[in-house]
């Protein structure tokens, strides 16, 4: 990948992400009724539907039609190399199990990286009629309105969202961690979609979030929305978000939650 090319305009990348996420969300919403499992991935509970693949194919086609030299990393289609400084990170349906069961909590997430840094994002939650968008350094918006996450609350008054992995041994460890977390917080929520959880954090539906086992396509787009809304996004031991652990909250609460999680093995499978 050349780094001598001129820097792409993050706002133009954001606009393209929003346009494509809107079309992809409409396609997926139309196809939700009567959907069935097409395949499984890492485990029998890690499912794929035909609409996951159809939606990602549409996203790739639309992005590359406008920017044919970009790379695309998608949950279903893998990583296509490009020759530009831009890579798109795509989750066509985040919350596939919710989608399969007719739940409204799923979304389409599209992020644009420039030289490995996420600079633009769109997250479409069709069932809520919500389009989230963000540009690094330019703020986050929901349906065009500037977003600012509510102020931090103390840990014991925090409503915390989380999720569980697909492997039984990981779920057992996550349950052990949760047993230690619950006495220290207001309550827990398990929605089934990191895109919905992280954008919900930006709107104040939750105060904090943590989860082990996410991938870049899970957190890249909603993570930028969250950080541009004033939240801190990170990972284990003060590092960046990773597949080991993603933590998000307002500064202050973030540190309290991270300190609580650190000795519990939340970033391990036990």
From TrEMBL:
<dbReference type="InterPro" id="IPR000760">
    <property type="entry name" value="Inositol_monophosphatase-like"/>
</dbReference>
<keyword id="KW-0378">Hydrolase</keyword>
<feature type="binding site">
    <location>
        <position position="93"/>
    </location>
    <ligand>
        <name>Mg(2+) 2</name>
    </ligand>
</feature>
<dbReference type="GO" id="GO:0046872">
    <property type="term" value="F:metal ion binding"/>
</dbReference>
<feature type="binding site">
    <location>
        <position position="75"/>
    </location>
    <ligand>
        <name>Mg(2+) 1</name>
    </ligand>
</feature>
<feature type="binding site">
    <location>
        <position position="218"/>
    </location>
    <ligand>
        <name>Mg(2+) 1</name>
    </ligand>
</feature>
<dbReference type="GO" id="GO:0006020">
    <property type="term" value="P:inositol metabolic process"/>
</dbReference>
<feature type="binding site">
    <location>
        <position position="94"/>
    </location>
    <ligand>
        <name>Mg(2+) 1</name>
    </ligand>
</feature>
<dbReference type="Pfam" id="PF00459">
    <property type="entry name" value="Inositol_P"/>
</dbReference>
<comment type="similarity">
    <text>Belongs to the inositol monophosphatase superfamily.</text>
</comment>
<dbReference type="GO" id="GO:0008934">
    <property type="term" value="F:inositol monophosphate 1-phosphatase activity"/>
</dbReference>
<keyword id="KW-0479">Metal-binding</keyword>
<dbReference type="InterPro" id="IPR020583">
    <property type="entry name" value="Inositol_monoP_metal-BS"/>
</dbReference>
<keyword id="KW-0460">Magnesium</keyword>
<feature type="binding site">
    <location>
        <position position="91"/>
    </location>
    <ligand>
        <name>Mg(2+) 1</name>
    </ligand>
</feature>
<dbReference type="GO" id="GO:0007165">
    <property type="term" value="P:signal transduction"/>
</dbReference>
<dbReference type="InterPro" id="IPR033942">
    <property type="entry name" value="IMPase"/>
</dbReference>
<protein>
    <recommendedName>
        <fullName>Inositol-1-monophosphatase</fullName>
        <ecNumber>3.1.3.25</ecNumber>
    </recommendedName>
</protein>
